[in-house]
Design the sequence.
RNA sequence: UGUCCUGUGGUGUAAUUGGCAACACGUCUGACUCUGAAUCAGAAGAGUCCAGGUUCGACCCCUGGCAGGACAACCA
């Protein structure tokens, strides 16, 4: 199995609780010391960064202990699941860097086996066909504090249940008319143990088994048995299944599984600030058009993060750094952003882009002269080479980089001030030209030839500006993405209010930028750092002469803090 | 007024089976810088939910509270 390196040099000094459990299990030679995990998504939506944590955990644990990890689709509800989701899930897991080899499984692979197991339990007197309606079952289940009441069908003869179950399978009964229930304990303080439903009748076409079945197993019945059939040793899931664990074990007990039993272990799901994670809410955002789709770069989905420009390695490191435990948590997005910047800083090529251009004219630079200057592609990794940047008399710089009345500690350009133009010369601002409204339209400067980049010069300046040559710059659409919500915990709303009220109206700003010409030939997915600005990647919408860049995230900006 | 789970700096995670709390992110200084980025150096910030108890010694063990969460789909 592949386990991509996380470039994580921090020495591993302690084990998390899952590693401890597994280490102990191996020490006790449980399952012969085998470790086999699984990632079990339901194909009813797109994967998000919370799933990424689970994927990293399951595949990571397996490789760490020389085991295997299966990809298993939990496809027991044909009314919600679709092939489209299966495809996107596989793409996302692969993109994250994990390989399930030939072990691509489906709960639906086990429908026959599950049926046999169910018959076994009926014969054993541990399951029965119940003919109450869904409402009746709900009402008789009681509440967490009040015991439930037994079904009138609970003690019907085994032969009768067997016959009815067989006819349920054959399609003799309409949806909802009957269910198969485990016979456990309607008085149990654990609601999960109050005769849970194992099968329901659903005359629905399944994306894999077609019309072969009209009864489908419920999660609790299908999941643990699938784990068992696959030889899973550690069935890692999220906290909400904690109360299901007695049921998970009960089924295994009653099926008389003695050795190599899978063991369910729960951990706290990932929560991220400034976003929402529930599939239902994400679906809502898509359906209501608040975002452009599941892979909108503002979505916390893996496909959204991918389109946004996040790297698989950064997501893996993130999953590793947030750790895993059983307490509820809220990870600050800052942590994620740090992981991405760290990776992108190391790996992305630099380029210059001007977003709010103002013309800068070098009065003493020869008309018509063009110099091809060398720019380092990545100073963190100089062997990646250089690119050529044309320099000429008329440039564009960022409006923000010039102020007529600079505050103290302003290291940029102002009348009489000097700055370096990155990879070019030091210049001095002599005067400006304004329009009738008083806005600066031209900044006139003098350049100092002896300060050309690479030459020895005694002249020192505080600031360095990025720029593009007016004549050579190419135009690009740029989509500036920001946090989807304006508050850290958008789901934390008053009674009767909705998380949508915290949607950030400025989460997407479409603008244009002037780029250095080396960027004319880029392909979707390529990532860059626009110097002094941020990280950007080429969107799939991008075309040869109609470039589209997405802002992954900005560079840290301590000047913004000072000037505030 | 049931069962189960969880409480450690702002956030997250540690403290290897009891030895006066560590790491990462964040924050704040300063250095360096042809990216106000990165990097480097340093600082502040918790006495471990509370109260008892055991012990020479408790984040860790015991008792009792308190707080938060999960569970009442023919969803997963």
Sequence:
């Amino acid at each position: 199995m592949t386990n991509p390196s996380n470039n994580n040099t921090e020495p591993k000094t302690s084990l998390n609780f899952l590693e401890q459990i597994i280490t102990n299990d191996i020490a006790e030679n449980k399952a012969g010391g085998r470790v086999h995990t699984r990632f079990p998504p339901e194909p009813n939506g797109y994967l998000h960064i919370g799933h990424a944590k689970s994927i990293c955990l399951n595949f990571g644990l397996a490789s760490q202990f020389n085991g295997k990890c299966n990809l298993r689709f939990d496809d027991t509800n044909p009314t919600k699941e679709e092939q489209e989701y299966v495809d996107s899930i596989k793409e996302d897991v692969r993109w994250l860097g994990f390989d399930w080899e030939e072990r691509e499984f489906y709960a639906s692979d086990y429908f026959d086996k599950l049926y046999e197991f169910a018959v076994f339990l009926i014969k054993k007197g541990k399951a029965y066909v119940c003919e109450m309606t869904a409402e009746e079952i709900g009402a008789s289940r009681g509440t967490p504090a009040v015991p439930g009441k037994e079904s009138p069908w609970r003690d019907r003869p085994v032969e009768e249940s067997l016959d009815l179950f067989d006819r349920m399978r054959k399609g003799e009964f309409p949806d909802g008319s009957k269910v198969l229930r485990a016979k456990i304990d309607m008085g149990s303080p654990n609601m999960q143990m109050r005769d849970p439903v194992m099968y329901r009748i659903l005359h629905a076409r399944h994306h894999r088994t077609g019309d072969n079945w009209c009864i489908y197993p419920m999660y609790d019945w299908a999941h643990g048995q699938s784990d068992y059939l696959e030889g899973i040793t550690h069935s890692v899931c999220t906290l909400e299944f904690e109360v299901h664990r007695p049921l998970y074990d009960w089924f295994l007990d009653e099926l008389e599984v003695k050795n190599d039993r899978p063991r369910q272990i729960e951990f706290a799901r990932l929560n991220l600030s400034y976003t929402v994670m529930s599939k239902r809410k994400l679906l809502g955002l898509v359906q209501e058009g608040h975002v452009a789709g599941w892979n909108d770069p503002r979505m916390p989905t893996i496909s959204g993060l991918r389109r946004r420009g996040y790297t698989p390695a950064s997501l893996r490191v993130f999953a590793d750094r947030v750790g895993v435990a059983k307490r509820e948590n809220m990870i600050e997005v800052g942590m994620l952003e740090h992981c991405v910047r760290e990776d992108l800083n190391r790996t992305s090529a630099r380029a210059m882009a001007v977003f709010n251009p103002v013309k800068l004219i070098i009065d003493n630079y020869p008309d018509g002269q063009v110099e091809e200057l060398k720019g380092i592609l990545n100073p963190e990794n100089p062997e990646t080479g250089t690119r050529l940047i044309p320099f000429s008399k008329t440039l564009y710089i960022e409006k923000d980089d010039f102020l007529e009345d600079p505050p103290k500690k302003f290291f940029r350009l102002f009348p009489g001030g000097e700055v370096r133009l990155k990879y070019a010369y030091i210049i001095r601002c002599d005067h400006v030209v304004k329009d009738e409204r008083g806005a600066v339209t031209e900044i006139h400067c003098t350049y100092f030839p002896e300060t050309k980049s690479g030459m020895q010069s005694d002249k020192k300046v505080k600031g360095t500006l990025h720029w593009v040559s007016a004549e050579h710059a190419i135009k690009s659409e740029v989509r500036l993405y920001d946090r989807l919500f304006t508050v850290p915990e958008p789901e934390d709303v008053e009674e009767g209010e909705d998380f949508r009220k915290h949607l950030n109206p400025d989460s997407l700003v479409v603008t244009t930028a002037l780029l250095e010409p080396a960027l004319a030939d880029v392909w979707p997915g390529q990532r860059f750092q626009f110097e002094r600005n941020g990280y950007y990647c080429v969107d799939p919408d991008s075309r040869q002469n109609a470039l589209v860049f997405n802002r992954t995230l900005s560079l840290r900006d301590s000047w913004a803090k000072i000037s505030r």
The longest strand of chain A covers residues 426-434. Chain A has a mean pLDDT of 95. DSSP finds 13 helices and 25 strands in chain A. Residues 2 and 99 of chain A are 6 Å apart (CA to CA).
